[in-house]
Write a structure and sequence with these properties.
The protein is α+β, with helices and mostly antiparallel strands. It contains six helices and seven strands; from the N terminus they run E-H-H-H-E-E-E-H-H-E-H-E-E. It has one domain: Aminopeptidase. A hairpin with a 6-residue loop joins strand 3 and strand 4.
Length: about 160
């Protein structure tokens, strides 16, 4: 298993892995219709666009992409960053791949320069992120108007 920076040739496979994860893992907490909307927003084209302004990584094992995650500036700020698009293929969950992604992102320059890091989290992933020291932003434990749980970590 290796974690490396995303390149445009990874876009279709990464998008397909994300879609599979949304349909299998995240659909337990959200409607299938909402998961399909999320999948559209993480199309190969959208992932390529994201990789243009964030540091986006993929996890590859046996020639297949089994996970991904990104980190970028929080609304262009130099001292705040955000984690984005963290997914692990359902058949690979529970093997420490998510932990490896978080560790990689927390070694990235966007993390190291930040005083605060935010994660827009799904309900599915809140407890996972809490294990790494992220907590509800300003103590607010409910999702926002978009259904997103805002978590943060101060450094």
């Amino acid at each position: 298993m290796q974690i490396r920076r995303f390149n445009n040739a990874d876009a279709a496979e990464t998008s397909a892995m994300i879609t599979e994860t949304l349909r299998i893992s995240n659909v337990k907490d959200y409607t299938p219709e909402l998961m399909e909307e999320c999948a559209k927003s993480l199309s190969p084209e959208k992932l390529t666009e994201r990789a243009g302004w964030m540091h986006f990584y993929v996890v590859e094992d046996g020639g297949s992409i089994i996970g991904c995650g990104g980190i970028g500036p929080y609304w262009g700020k130099e001292d705040e960053s955000s984690l984005f698009t963290i997914f692990v293929k359902p058949t690979e969950q529970g093997r420490g791949i998510g932990r490896s992604i978080i560790e990689t992102l927390e070694r990235d320059e966007f993390f190291l320069r930040a005083k605060r890091v935010e994660i827009p989290s799904s309900k599915t992933a809140v407890n996972f992120y809490k294990r790494f020291g992220y907590d509800h932003k300003k103590g607010f434990e409910e999702p926002d108007d978009e259904g997103i749980y805002r978590l943060e970590k101060f450094r």
